[in-house]
Protein backbone atom coordinates (compact mmCIF):
# COMPACT_ATOMS: atom_id res chain seq x y z
CA UNK A 1 0.00 0.00 0.00
CA UNK A 2 2.89 2.37 -0.82
CA UNK A 3 0.70 4.65 -2.93
CA UNK A 4 -1.75 5.02 -0.04
CA UNK A 5 1.12 5.88 2.30
CA UNK A 6 2.39 8.47 -0.18
CA UNK A 7 -1.05 10.07 -0.36
CA UNK A 8 -1.25 10.20 3.42
CA UNK A 9 2.21 11.80 3.64
CA UNK A 10 1.21 14.39 1.03
CA UNK A 11 -2.09 15.23 2.78
CA UNK A 12 -0.50 15.58 6.22
CA UNK A 13 2.37 17.65 4.84
CA UNK A 14 -0.13 20.00 3.20
CA UNK A 15 -2.15 20.24 6.43
CA UNK A 16 0.84 20.85 8.69
CA UNK A 17 2.94 22.89 6.26
CA UNK A 18 5.99 20.84 7.16
CA UNK A 19 7.41 17.61 5.81
CA UNK A 20 9.23 16.84 9.06
CA UNK A 21 6.08 17.45 11.12
CA UNK A 22 4.13 15.08 8.86
CA UNK A 23 6.90 12.49 9.20
CA UNK A 24 6.78 12.70 13.00
CA UNK A 25 2.99 12.38 13.00
CA UNK A 26 3.10 9.30 10.77
CA UNK A 27 6.14 7.88 12.60
CA UNK A 28 8.32 7.90 9.50
CA UNK A 29 11.77 9.29 8.80
CA UNK A 30 11.97 12.64 6.98
CA UNK A 31 13.93 10.93 4.22
CA UNK A 32 11.18 8.38 3.58
CA UNK A 33 8.51 11.09 3.60
CA UNK A 34 10.48 13.34 1.26
CA UNK A 35 11.09 10.48 -1.17
CA UNK A 36 7.38 9.59 -1.18
CA UNK A 37 6.38 13.16 -2.08
CA UNK A 38 9.03 13.31 -4.83
CA UNK A 39 7.71 10.03 -6.32
CA UNK A 40 4.20 11.48 -6.35
CA UNK A 41 5.43 14.59 -8.13
CA UNK A 42 7.28 12.48 -10.71
CA UNK A 43 4.17 10.35 -11.34
CA UNK A 44 1.98 13.42 -11.73
CA UNK A 45 4.49 15.41 -13.74
CA UNK A 46 4.01 18.48 -11.53
CA UNK A 47 5.53 19.91 -8.40
CA UNK A 48 3.03 19.79 -5.52
CA UNK A 49 4.86 22.13 -3.15
CA UNK A 50 6.80 25.36 -3.37
CA UNK A 51 9.77 24.72 -1.13
CA UNK A 52 11.62 27.28 0.95
CA UNK A 53 14.01 27.04 3.88
CA UNK A 54 11.20 27.84 6.36
CA UNK A 55 8.04 26.25 5.04
CA UNK A 56 6.24 24.40 2.30
CA UNK A 57 3.18 25.69 0.53
CA UNK A 58 1.04 24.03 -2.09
CA UNK A 59 1.35 24.90 -5.74
CA UNK A 60 -1.81 25.44 -7.76
CA UNK A 61 -1.57 21.83 -8.95
CA UNK A 62 -0.97 20.73 -5.38
CA UNK A 63 -4.12 22.47 -4.17
CA UNK A 64 -6.16 20.68 -6.83
CA UNK A 65 -4.59 17.32 -6.07
CA UNK A 66 -5.10 17.73 -2.31
CA UNK A 67 -8.89 17.60 -2.72
CA UNK A 68 -8.73 14.34 -4.70
CA UNK A 69 -6.09 12.82 -2.43
CA UNK A 70 -8.15 13.48 0.72
CA UNK A 71 -11.28 12.06 -0.92
CA UNK A 72 -9.34 8.97 -2.03
CA UNK A 73 -7.99 8.35 1.47
CA UNK A 74 -11.43 8.82 3.00
CA UNK A 75 -13.00 6.35 0.55
CA UNK A 76 -10.33 3.74 1.17
CA UNK A 77 -10.55 4.09 4.95
CA UNK A 78 -14.35 3.96 4.83
CA UNK A 79 -14.18 0.80 2.73
CA UNK A 80 -11.70 -0.88 5.05
CA UNK A 81 -13.78 0.11 8.08
CA UNK A 82 -16.98 -1.18 6.48
CA UNK A 83 -15.42 -4.59 5.94
CA UNK A 84 -14.08 -4.69 9.49
CA UNK A 85 -17.34 -3.46 11.03
CA UNK A 86 -19.23 -6.47 9.73
CA UNK A 87 -16.93 -8.75 11.64
CA UNK A 88 -16.67 -6.80 14.89
CA UNK A 89 -19.01 -6.97 17.88
CA UNK A 90 -19.24 -3.35 18.97
CA UNK A 91 -18.56 -2.89 22.67
CA UNK A 92 -17.06 -0.49 25.19
CA UNK A 93 -17.99 3.05 26.20
CA UNK A 94 -18.36 6.07 23.96
CA UNK A 95 -18.81 9.62 25.24
CA UNK A 96 -20.78 12.05 23.04
CA UNK A 97 -21.46 15.79 23.34
CA UNK A 98 -24.54 17.08 21.48
CA UNK A 99 -26.67 20.24 21.26
CA UNK A 100 -29.55 20.29 23.73
CA UNK A 101 -32.46 20.32 21.27
CA UNK A 102 -31.07 17.71 18.91
CA UNK A 103 -29.72 15.64 21.81
CA UNK A 104 -32.92 15.38 23.85
CA UNK A 105 -35.50 15.08 21.11
CA UNK A 106 -33.69 13.12 18.40
CA UNK A 107 -30.32 11.75 19.40
CA UNK A 108 -31.50 10.16 22.66
CA UNK A 109 -34.19 7.93 21.07
CA UNK A 110 -31.92 7.16 18.11
CA UNK A 111 -29.14 6.06 20.48
CA UNK A 112 -31.64 3.76 22.20
CA UNK A 113 -32.21 2.05 18.82
CA UNK A 114 -28.46 1.91 18.17
CA UNK A 115 -27.84 0.29 21.55
CA UNK A 116 -30.50 -2.33 20.86
CA UNK A 117 -28.49 -3.27 17.77
CA UNK A 118 -25.26 -3.27 19.79
CA UNK A 119 -26.16 -4.29 23.36
CA UNK A 120 -22.55 -4.38 24.60
CA UNK A 121 -22.11 -0.64 24.14
CA UNK A 122 -22.25 1.94 26.93
CA UNK A 123 -22.97 5.53 25.91
CA UNK A 124 -22.33 8.63 28.00
CA UNK A 125 -24.27 11.60 26.62
CA UNK A 126 -23.37 15.24 27.41
CA UNK A 127 -25.97 17.82 26.32
CA UNK A 128 -24.46 21.26 25.92
CA UNK A 129 -24.87 23.98 23.30
CA UNK A 130 -21.43 25.43 24.06
CA UNK A 131 -18.40 24.30 22.11
CA UNK A 132 -16.69 21.38 23.80
CA UNK A 133 -12.90 21.17 23.84
CA UNK A 134 -12.26 17.66 22.55
CA UNK A 135 -8.63 17.88 23.64
CA UNK A 136 -9.40 18.73 27.29
CA UNK A 137 -12.86 17.35 28.06
CA UNK A 138 -13.59 13.63 28.57
CA UNK A 139 -15.58 13.43 25.32
CA UNK A 140 -14.88 11.18 22.33
CA UNK A 141 -17.28 12.77 19.85
CA UNK A 142 -19.09 16.05 19.41
CA UNK A 143 -22.16 16.67 17.26
CA UNK A 144 -22.39 20.26 16.07
CA UNK A 145 -24.13 22.28 13.38
CA UNK A 146 -22.00 24.29 10.94
CA UNK A 147 -18.38 24.05 9.90
CA UNK A 148 -15.95 23.55 12.82
CA UNK A 149 -13.83 26.57 13.69
CA UNK A 150 -10.90 24.28 14.47
CA UNK A 151 -9.59 22.94 11.15
CA UNK A 152 -7.61 20.22 12.94
CA UNK A 153 -10.81 18.42 13.97
CA UNK A 154 -12.02 15.51 11.86
CA UNK A 155 -15.56 16.19 10.61
CA UNK A 156 -17.73 13.21 9.69
CA UNK A 157 -20.79 14.55 7.84
CA UNK A 158 -24.23 13.41 9.00
CA UNK A 159 -26.11 15.70 6.60
CA UNK A 160 -25.23 18.55 4.28
CA UNK A 161 -28.88 19.33 3.45
CA UNK A 162 -29.89 21.08 6.66
CA UNK A 163 -30.92 24.76 6.77
CA UNK A 164 -32.40 27.08 9.38
CA UNK A 165 -35.88 28.44 8.73
CA UNK A 166 -38.26 30.94 10.30
CA UNK A 167 -41.14 29.43 12.24
CA UNK A 168 -43.88 30.23 14.76
CA UNK A 169 -46.86 28.48 16.30
CA UNK A 170 -50.42 28.85 14.94
CA UNK A 171 -51.35 30.59 18.22
CA UNK A 172 -48.67 33.26 17.73
CA UNK A 173 -49.69 33.84 14.10
CA UNK A 174 -53.36 34.17 15.11
CA UNK A 175 -52.49 36.72 17.78
CA UNK A 176 -49.82 38.78 15.99
CA UNK A 177 -50.09 37.99 12.29
CA UNK A 178 -47.64 36.34 9.92
CA UNK A 179 -44.61 38.26 8.59
CA UNK A 180 -44.73 38.39 4.80
CA UNK A 181 -41.04 39.21 4.39
CA UNK A 182 -37.92 39.06 6.56
CA UNK A 183 -37.99 42.86 6.87
CA UNK A 184 -41.19 42.55 8.92
CA UNK A 185 -39.38 40.50 11.57
CA UNK A 186 -38.48 43.81 13.23
CA UNK A 187 -42.20 44.13 14.06
CA UNK A 188 -42.33 40.72 15.77
CA UNK A 189 -41.15 39.18 19.03
CA UNK A 190 -38.17 37.05 18.03
CA UNK A 191 -36.79 34.26 20.20
CA UNK A 192 -33.00 34.42 20.25
CA UNK A 193 -30.28 31.93 21.07
CA UNK A 194 -27.16 33.04 22.96
CA UNK A 195 -23.80 31.38 23.40
CA UNK A 196 -21.49 32.64 26.13
CA UNK A 197 -21.67 36.44 25.80
CA UNK A 198 -22.90 36.47 22.19
CA UNK A 199 -26.59 36.81 21.34
CA UNK A 200 -27.38 35.59 17.82
CA UNK A 201 -29.82 38.35 16.90
CA UNK A 202 -28.62 39.01 13.35
CA UNK A 203 -30.43 36.42 11.26
CA UNK A 204 -28.78 35.70 7.90
CA UNK A 205 -31.32 34.78 5.21
CA UNK A 206 -31.36 34.35 1.45
CA UNK A 207 -33.88 33.49 -1.26
CA UNK A 208 -31.46 32.45 -4.06
CA UNK A 209 -31.55 36.00 -5.43
CA UNK A 210 -30.47 38.18 -2.53
CA UNK A 211 -29.09 37.84 0.97
CA UNK A 212 -30.30 39.73 4.02
CA UNK A 213 -29.00 40.27 7.53
CA UNK A 214 -31.92 41.20 9.77
CA UNK A 215 -31.29 42.41 13.31
CA UNK A 216 -34.13 41.09 15.45
CA UNK A 217 -35.21 41.60 19.05
CA UNK A 218 -37.55 40.01 21.54
CA UNK A 219 -38.32 39.48 25.20
CA UNK A 220 -36.76 36.00 25.47
CA UNK A 221 -33.12 34.94 25.03
CA UNK A 222 -31.74 31.52 26.03
CA UNK A 223 -28.42 29.71 25.90
CA UNK A 224 -30.34 26.46 25.40
CA UNK A 225 -31.59 25.63 21.90
CA UNK A 226 -34.32 23.34 23.18
CA UNK A 227 -35.75 26.14 25.32
CA UNK A 228 -36.01 28.39 22.25
CA UNK A 229 -37.83 25.51 20.53
CA UNK A 230 -40.25 25.19 23.47
CA UNK A 231 -40.90 28.94 23.51
CA UNK A 232 -41.82 28.80 19.83
CA UNK A 233 -44.22 25.90 20.43
CA UNK A 234 -45.80 27.83 23.33
CA UNK A 235 -46.56 30.77 21.06
CA UNK A 236 -44.11 33.27 22.52
CA UNK A 237 -42.57 34.41 19.24
CA UNK A 238 -40.75 33.71 15.99
CA UNK A 239 -37.77 31.33 16.02
CA UNK A 240 -34.96 30.67 13.54
CA UNK A 241 -34.41 26.94 13.89
CA UNK A 242 -32.68 24.06 12.17
CA UNK A 243 -35.15 22.12 10.03
CA UNK A 244 -33.73 18.87 11.44
CA UNK A 245 -34.79 19.93 14.94
CA UNK A 246 -38.34 21.05 14.12
CA UNK A 247 -39.29 18.72 11.24
CA UNK A 248 -41.86 16.76 13.28
CA UNK A 249 -43.52 19.97 14.49
CA UNK A 250 -43.76 21.27 10.93
CA UNK A 251 -45.34 18.00 9.80
CA UNK A 252 -47.87 18.01 12.65
CA UNK A 253 -48.73 21.70 12.29
CA UNK A 254 -47.47 22.64 15.75
CA UNK A 255 -45.11 25.06 14.03
CA UNK A 256 -45.68 26.93 10.77
CA UNK A 257 -42.89 27.85 8.39
CA UNK A 258 -42.76 31.61 7.71
CA UNK A 259 -41.46 33.47 4.65
CA UNK A 260 -41.22 30.22 2.70
CA UNK A 261 -38.72 31.35 0.08
CA UNK A 262 -36.25 32.54 2.73
CA UNK A 263 -33.84 30.38 4.69
CA UNK A 264 -30.27 30.27 5.91
CA UNK A 265 -27.33 29.01 3.90
CA UNK A 266 -26.65 25.31 4.31
CA UNK A 267 -25.90 24.38 7.93
CA UNK A 268 -24.30 20.92 7.89
CA UNK A 269 -24.47 18.62 10.89
CA UNK A 270 -21.15 16.92 11.63
CA UNK A 271 -19.84 14.31 14.00
CA UNK A 272 -16.49 15.68 15.18
CA UNK A 273 -13.50 13.93 16.72
CA UNK A 274 -9.97 15.02 17.49
CA UNK A 275 -8.08 12.59 15.26
CA UNK A 276 -8.67 10.10 12.46
CA UNK A 277 -6.97 7.52 14.67
CA UNK A 278 -10.19 7.55 16.75
CA UNK A 279 -12.28 6.33 13.82
CA UNK A 280 -12.85 2.85 15.17
CA UNK A 281 -15.70 0.54 14.05
CA UNK A 282 -18.03 1.93 16.73
CA UNK A 283 -17.69 5.53 15.59
CA UNK A 284 -18.05 4.63 11.92
CA UNK A 285 -21.11 2.49 12.62
CA UNK A 286 -22.63 5.35 14.63
CA UNK A 287 -21.97 7.82 11.81
CA UNK A 288 -23.66 5.55 9.27
CA UNK A 289 -26.62 4.95 11.58
CA UNK A 290 -27.20 8.63 12.37
CA UNK A 291 -26.77 9.64 8.72
CA UNK A 292 -29.46 7.13 7.78
CA UNK A 293 -31.86 8.38 10.49
CA UNK A 294 -31.45 12.02 9.42
CA UNK A 295 -31.86 11.15 5.73
CA UNK A 296 -35.09 9.29 6.52
CA UNK A 297 -36.27 12.31 8.50
CA UNK A 298 -35.75 15.19 6.08
CA UNK A 299 -35.89 13.56 2.64
From TrEMBL:
InterPro entries: LysR-type_TF_proteobact-type (IPR058163), LysR_HTH_N (IPR000847), LysR_subst-bd (IPR005119), WH-like_DNA-bd_sf (IPR036388), WH_DNA-bd_sf (IPR036390). Residues 1-59 form the HTH lysR-type domain. Keywords: DNA-binding, Transcription, Transcription regulation. PROSITE patterns: HTH_LYSR. Signal peptide: none annotated. SUPFAM superfamilies: Periplasmic binding protein-like II, Winged helix' DNA-binding domain. GO terms for biological process: DNA-templated transcription. It holds the Pfam family LysR_substrate. It comes from the Bacteria. The keyword Transcription regulation applies. GO terms for molecular function: DNA-binding transcription factor activity; sequence-specific DNA binding. Belongs to the LysR transcriptional regulatory family. PANTHER family: HTH-TYPE TRANSCRIPTIONAL REGULATOR, HTH-TYPE TRANSCRIPTIONAL REGULATOR SINR-RELATED. This is LysR family transcriptional regulator.
Amino acid sequence: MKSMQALRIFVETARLGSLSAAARLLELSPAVSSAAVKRLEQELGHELFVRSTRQLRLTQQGERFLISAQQALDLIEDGVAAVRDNAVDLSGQISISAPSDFGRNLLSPWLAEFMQLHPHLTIRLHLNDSLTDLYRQPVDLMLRYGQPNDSSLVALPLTNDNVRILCASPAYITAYGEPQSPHQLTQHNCLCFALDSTTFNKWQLHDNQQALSIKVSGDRIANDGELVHRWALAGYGVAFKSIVDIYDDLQSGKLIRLCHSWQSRTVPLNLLCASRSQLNPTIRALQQFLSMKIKQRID
